[in-house]
Amino acid sequence: MTPRPPSVSEDVTALPRGGQNAIGVTLGLLGDEWTLLILRQALQGTRLYGDWMRALPISHAVLSGRLGRLTEFGLLERVAYQERPERHEYRLTRRGRGVWPILLGIWAWELSHVERHAEELPRMRHHGHLFEPVLVCGGCAAPVGPRDLVGGFGPSGTWERSLPSATTRRRSASAPGHLEGFFPQTTALVGNRWSCAMLGAAFQGARRFRDFERQLAAPPVVIADRLRTFAELDVMTASANGGYRLTAKGLAFFPVAVHTMEWAQRWFRSPEGPALSYRHTACGAPFRPRHTCSECAEPLRGGTIERVGQ
């Protein structure tokens, strides 16, 4: 069941008992290339409908639909700024501003691991120097990778409840190896409900075909197709023992996954409890993902990052 959108943008959304959890709701909302691009422009200061139309190769129908959905779910607020004639602008809420670590992770992954894009990706500068974001533990500030965490599903966390609804998914036609998409390979990973689930299962340790089949209850033909796509993207590869393993490129997508998880559970909550729960093995604290600067090691904030170029 898709939750009713929040009526007040700063409120946490209560999800129905036994329904889609925070992860499923968030993937259904953010697993869409146009939505990510609209939010990217909003974080750069875009507020007016016409400015989005000029900045993006987007149709009126798609832009209106995405802005409406982002407003319903509390990431944007539609505010009148002129009375005669009445005109509105779309302002980011605190919930909307909170997606910047996800977009920063996508930018860094695409810049480092995807060679071709429809537009040249800008570099980013922090306190005057080019940098890459580093994923660290919010408790002890140590760098973190997938193997540094323990945990998994919480009280509301089953694979069935974590899948985005197929009927509400809206995604662009981006495909692996093509230039149509601005975030082509990110969209291939998060713009398909089974890709999301299989990537999550791989981060939780699934390695064999039967592991994915058993955990996800997905048809074998779907699993085979997704594994083939992951291989084409060089995100997973067949291992010598007959299983599959994440490549360095696949492991590098982990910051995007954990920041999405944190944002999801910050703003959408099931009455049974969290969907996912992890601890950092080194310090034992509940894991809270944070980005730091690769050059100065300071925590990154949206307002301290400057675009260079496009």
UniProtKB/TrEMBL annotation:
Pfam families xref list: HxlR
PROSITE patterns, per the entry: HTH_HXLR (PS51118)
SUPFAM superfamilies linked to this entry: Winged helix' DNA-binding domain
InterPro entries linked to this entry: HTH_HxlR, WH-like_DNA-bd_sf, WH_DNA-bd_sf
Tree of life domain: Bacteria
Span of domain HTH hxlR-type: 15-118, 175-272
UniProt keywords, alphabetically: DNA-binding, Transcription, Transcription regulation
One example GO MF annotation: DNA binding
Protein name (Swiss-Prot/TrEMBL): Winged helix-turn-helix transcriptional regulator
Organism, as annotated: Umezawaea endophytica
Upper classification of the organism: Bacteria, Bacillati, Actinomycetota, Actinomycetes, Pseudonocardiales
